[in-house]
Amino acid sequence: MDRLKIAVAAHCFAGPLKRSLQAIAQSGARGIQFDAQNELKPAEFSETGRRQFLHHLDELGLSVASLTFPTRAVLYDLEQLEPRVAAIKGVLEFSAQLKARVVAMRIGRIPDEPQAEEFLVLRDVLNDLCRYGNHVGATLAITPMSDSAESLKRLFATISSGPIGVNFDPANCIMSGQEVGANMRALHDVLIHIQIRDAIRDLDGSGQEVPVGRGQVDWEEFLALVDEAAYHGWLTVDRTQGEDQAGDVTRAVQYLRQVAQG
To answer: To the nearest 10°, the Cα dihedral for 181, 185, 186, 188?
Structure first.
């Protein structure tokens, strides 16, 4: 039995949605991550439209694994904060309606000082969002930037209104000079989504994303860590660079299954 729940990021498959869905189904993936800002917008779907869309996915053997919601400002930027929070709440509700229940997003670098105004604003905003997510049935998955596991857990300790978790991306660890295995173990209890990307880090300290299997992530060890964490959620293959993103992602799906099978 296939033990991996592998999804792919829809943006890697350019073209009309119907054709992209067919290509994704043929890739071997069983889930899709959609960008709720640019690809699958809540305002464009009626209740009937959502039902028809989910039925079509089901016919293809696919599910919505998660949504992402890119924002133009950090979550503690007070300018236009109210409409930004309202938009995120709309995406949380949309995620639950699509049976995905996970919204992955960046919040900006976590402020170092817990008593700083920016940290307190971030705490209050996240508590508000988590309270709403708990109400509608969806959870925020924070995608770290260069934040350490300690910083993430210190922030999460201040969130008491509802569930919150991490969207773990091993490529981010590589490019920020962090150890993948140590971070993964430190975040075992808050993993709710995993983004599959690979990367290399040069001697000068710069990092670069590369196709899965061609970077510095030890995928055999990584999948062992996934098992160790008793993580049973989606692993979403993504590619943000390269001239053949769909091909790279499809090959990554096959590569992961080969590694998992030994």
So the answer is: 130
How many C-beta atoms lie closer than 10 Å to residue 80's C-beta?
A: 12
* Per-residue model confidence (pLDDT) at position 1: 37
Local structure of residue 44 (DSSP, 8 states): G
* pLDDT, tens only, 28-41: 999 999 999 999 99
- Could you tell me which residues come within 8 angstroms of residue 218 by beta carbon, excluding any fewer than 6 positions away? 180
- Residues counted in the chain: 262
Q: What kind and span of H or E run contains 246? A: helix 245-261
**pTM of full prediction above 0.85:** yes
**231 token code pair:** 């993580």
| Spatial distance between the Cα atoms of 213 and 56, rounded to a whole number of angstroms | 32
Q: Which of 199, 184, 88 is CA-nearest to residue 139? A: 88
CB 251 within 8 A of CB 211: yes
Q: What confidence tens digit (pLDDT) does each residue in 185-200 have? A: 999 999 999 999 999 9
Joined together, the tokens standing for residue 50 give 């959502």
